[in-house]
Amino acid sequence: MPADRRVLPFRHTPAAPARPVAMVRALTLRRGGRALLDGLELTLFTGGITALLGPNGAGKSLLLRALAGLIPPDGGAIDLAPHTGAPALVFQKPVLLHRTVRANLAHALRLARVPRAARAGRLAELLVQARLSAQAQAQARALSGGEQQRLAIARALAARPRLLLLDEPTAHLDPASTAAVEALVRAAAHAGVKVLIVTHDRAQAARLADDVAFLAAGRITEHRPADDFFQRPESDEARAYLEGRLLL
Ligand SMILES: Nc1ncnc2c1ncn2[C@@H]1O[C@H](COP(=O)(O)OP(=O)(O)OP(=O)(O)O)[C@@H](O)[C@H]1O
């Protein structure tokens, strides 16, 4: 990849110079004799939202899990910048405690070692951000799909991560619920959290993303500003995907 493609414009933090958050170098993951990720290269910079696009089975979820430290690489390396800390990962189907919304957030704040005295204020803040203040005493599992996803993201934000990994957070949500999740994701990015979001919703990627990384057959084939990507995809794989022709 030419060096100039790595200098990406970011809409959210124009004043702050972009610094690497995570560097993925020659990442390989093998299962059953098959390279599912195959020498994958990707650098994520501070600021803004990166959409990770690619066809079913390309390896997007695997990459997110590897970035979150859940899968050790079989080859290559994932380097997180010292300022990045532990990335937060939110799955497509949120795994919530069988407890109230408030208890879910309180638990996350305890796990994140937020000092006891600061927890109530931070919890109220997270409820407001996720627009769940009115549901604070509701059982988390009784929430709508969109509310559950907002709770899952708020819970992930409890630890004040610098890198938030979202795996298809709005799959199966209606337009209003999708918009509410997107607003929360945008707010997190505005607050300085680097977001990497997997989505199959091209319109969503165009609405949210500053840049797009395209993954096909275990490799990033291009990583460019979102507008450029959608107007002039460079790799054959990305062109085929955007035209609905790429099947792995
Ligand atoms: N533990 C595993 N063992 C063997 N194969 C696996 C394992 N986990 C994932 N795979 C395979 O790796 C490939 C990539 O899976 P992954 O879930 O990352 O794709 P994806 O790009 O997220 O797809 P989708 O868009 O459908 O969610 C798939 O072919 C999948 O079947």
Automatic annotation (TrEMBL):
GO molecular function: ATP binding; ATP hydrolysis activity
Domain of life: Bacteria
PROSITE patterns: ABC_TRANSPORTER_1 (PS00211), ABC_TRANSPORTER_2 (PS50893)
Domain called ABC transporter: residue spans: 18-242
Record flagged with keyword Ribosomal protein: no
Alphabetical list of Pfam families matching this protein: ABC_tran
Keywords: ATP-binding, Nucleotide-binding, Transport
Family that this chain belongs to: Belongs to the ABC transporter superfamily.
Protein name: ABC transporter domain-containing protein
